[in-house]
Amino acid sequence: MKFSKHTAIIAFSVIIGLSTVNAQLLNEHELKINIQDIRNSTEQLKKLTPITFDYDTKKFNKLNLPQGNQYGFLASNVKSILPDIAMQSSQVYSLGKNTTKTARYDSVDSESLIPLLVAAIKEQQQQIESLRKELEALKEKE
Predict the structure, then answer these.
(1) Which tens digits make up the pLDDT trace of 65-95?
(2) Extents of the domains making up the chain
(3) DSSP codes joined into one string, 32-47
(4) pTM for the model
(5) Which fold has domain 35-141?
(6) Residue 20 confidence class, pLDDT cut points 50, 70, 90
């Protein structure tokens, strides 16, 4: 039996279609438990020390680290303030034919900082609005 390009595309489409039918939609309120608002985010973020740095790409060339100036945090600093977003990462790299090694290092899940940043902006906005009302009240007394 000879297959054309069109037959292959149709067969591929059918396979994709079958896997889509089996997809399960999860309700996020069932998936996520112990949901709590983030509090005191401004105070937590004030304790962090943002840094710039360069990876030692010569010494650790097998890790394919990005070159040039990087922005981030020292995981050791973050761990003492926000231990849930400081973690140990690992990367497997080749030492030669059929030989690998795993490098483990502390890192920061920077994406997890986004909800903290949003919460801190909201806290600061509440403070700004409160100060604005206080200022307007003082101006009215004059």
Answers:
(1) 999 999 999 999 999 999 999 999 999 988 8
(2) 35-141
(3) --S-----SHHHHHHH
(4) 0.71
(5) Arc Repressor Mutant, subunit A (1.10.10)
(6) low
